[in-house]
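S.,

Sequence below, as promised.
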Amino acid sequence: MPRSQNKVASHRRRKRILARAKGYWGARSKVLTIAKHHLEKAEQHAYRDRRLKKREFRRLWITRINAASRIHGTTYSKLIDALNKKQVSINRKVLADLASHHPEAFAEVVKFATAK
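The prediction came back faster than expected:
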């Protein structure tokens, strides 16, 4: 019985792995086994960081809102509480954008929320 080989499929598999590792430093982009290990690690980081990114952006938005609201004489927590009591549903991403790019509009939101 002749020996069975898998040259086409294995060559494609190696090419695909090394193509995805292109740009890595040294043997990480040249040697198949090392490239495989580093690709696996990169995929773990990518999976984890897709979730961390959401947390980090929320923290950034809260920091920006807090800084801008302190300029107007209130704090982040008091502003959010006042908005909730007035039943204004505006998310933190939009509030942070208003605070950094449209300070006049943010001032109006603060004035509306804190008005008695």
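The chain has a mean pLDDT of 94.

Coffee later?
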